[in-house]
């Protein structure tokens, strides 16, 4: 669907909710905490609403994004949007997309009952952002899978712009400021990354020395995970965190943010990219899926000491095979 048409439909839906232009302007000023002139530019179509703004408006004004899309598209697909961020040669829009995620987290933090739930078969960015080698590894793998196939970069050649690095770290910091965080891990989450590292080492994209550095980082990460599990909270924020190990492998990784202000559900794609939606029906389906996963998972934070010890010992043995 044409993105300009989608934006026009959203503006039309807003105006249908509040026909009076002065009332609509004042309402959007209050909702978005921006100046009137900024609202005027958005309503004239000169500046697009950000995803965070769309999420706030649709939630507060009761606008169905599903209906907005289907009003000019016959497909009954839920309104998910693939967000492809270029982490190596970013343009301003790429920086803005990362910043949008950060802004959403910041807004959700205002709600004491807000939660971030992450079901993953790869290490979540919000947990590994302080581990330099792991952060670099996922960027390297993203380049390998999504970059220029004719000029494959080695792990050593993988460089990330300073501004992107700063934003990724800020995302990790803000994710830990959510009042409640739930992480459900695929039982083979460490095995997956160890297998990949061995493969890249065999094809000479990661050196033996770099394997050693990644091994150290993985052990440090497991120590960090153990500390989280024992305390049940983040050291830097004191906010609650619940860790689960699923009994079944994941075919897809996804996460969502739920707060009184709005919600956002995300399907992970291409290592570092996301497919996002603020649709109520999609959110309900993902929550139902999460509830089913939790019922078949083992909690290793706070309680479940025996299971925690057994799981982490097994993961350390897997890392030691590097």
Task: Describe, in plain words, how this protein is organized in 3D.
- This protein is of the alpha+beta class.
- The chain has helices at 3-17, 21-32, 36-43, 51-61, 65-70, 92-108, 125-128, 132-146, 162-175, 189-202, 208-231, 280-295, 305-319; strands at 81-83, 115-120, 180-185, 240-246, 254-258, 263-269, 273-277, 297-299.
- It has an eight-stranded mixed beta sheet, sandwiched between helices.
- A hairpin with a 3-residue loop joins strand 6 (263-269) and strand 7.
- Helix 6 (92-108) runs parallel beside helix 9 (162-175) and helix 11 runs antiparallel to helix 13.
**Please, what is the average pLDDT?**
85
Class based on secondary structure composition and strand pairing: alpha+beta
- Rounded to the nearest angstrom, the radius of gyration is 21 Å
Strand residue content: 5-15%
Low-confidence stretches: 71-78
**Count of DSSP-assigned helices:** 13
The figure for the number of domains is 2
- The side-by-side strand order for the widest beta sheet comes to 1-7-6-5-2-3-4-8
* Overall shape: globular
Q: H/E order of the elements? A: HHHHHEHEHHHEHHEEEEHEH
Helix content: 40-55%
- Number of strand segments: 8
The main sheet comes to: 8 strands, mixed
Query: What is the straight-line distance between the termini?
Result: 46 Å
In brief:
This protein is an alpha+beta fold and 322 residues long. It has 13 helices and 8 strands. Helix 11 packs antiparallel against helix 13.
Helices and strands in order:
Elements: H1 3-17, H2 21-32, H3 36-43, H4 51-61, H5 65-70, E1 81-83, H6 92-108, E2 115-120, H7 125-128, H8 132-146, H9 162-175, E3 180-185, H10 189-202, H11 208-231, E4 240-246, E5 254-258, E6 263-269, E7 273-277, H12 280-295, E8 297-299, H13 305-319
Parallel strand pairs: 2-3, 3-4
Antiparallel strand pairs: 1-7, 2-5, 4-8, 5-6, 6-7
């Amino acid at each position: 669907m044409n993105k300009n048409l989608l934006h026009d439909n959203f503006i039309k839906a807003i105006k249908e909710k509040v026909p009076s232009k002065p009332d609509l302007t004042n309402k959007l000023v209050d909702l978005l905490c921006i100046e009137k002139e900024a609202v005027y530019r958005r309503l004239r179509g000169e500046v697009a609403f950000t995803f965070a703004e769309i999420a706030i408006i649709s939630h507060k004004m009761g606008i169905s994004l599903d209906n907005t899309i289907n009003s000019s598209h016959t497909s009954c697909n839920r309104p998910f949007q693939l967000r492809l961020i270029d982490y190596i040669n970013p343009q301003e829009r790429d920086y803005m997309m990362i910043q949008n995620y950060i802004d959403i987290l910041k807004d959700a933090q205002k709600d004491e009952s807000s939660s971030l739930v992450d079901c993953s078969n790869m290490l979540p960015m919000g947990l590994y952002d302080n581990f330099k080698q792991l952060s670099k590894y996922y960027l390297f793998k993203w380049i390998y899978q999504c970059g220029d196939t004719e000029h494959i970069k080695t792990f050593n050649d993988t460089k990330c712009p300073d501004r992107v690095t700063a934003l990724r770290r800020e995302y990790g910091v803000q994710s830990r400021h959510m009042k409640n965080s739930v992480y459900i891990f695929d039982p083979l989450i460490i095995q997956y990354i160890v297998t990949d590292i061995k493969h890249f080492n065999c094809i000479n994209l990661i050196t033996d020395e770099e394997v050693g550095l990644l091994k150290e980082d993985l052990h440090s990460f497991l120590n960090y995970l153990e500390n989280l599990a024992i305390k049940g909270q983040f050291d830097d924020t004191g906010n609650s965190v619940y860790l689960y190990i699923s009994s079944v492998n994941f075919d897809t990784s996804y996460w969502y943010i739920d707060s009184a202000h709005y919600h956002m559900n995300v399907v992970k794609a291409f290592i570092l990219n996301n497919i996002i939606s603020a649709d109520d029906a999609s959110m309900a389906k993902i929550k139902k899926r999460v509830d089913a996963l939790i019922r078949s998972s083992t909690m290793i934070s706070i309680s479940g000491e025996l299971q925690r010890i057994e799981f982490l010992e097994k993961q350390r043995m897997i890392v030691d095979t590097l």
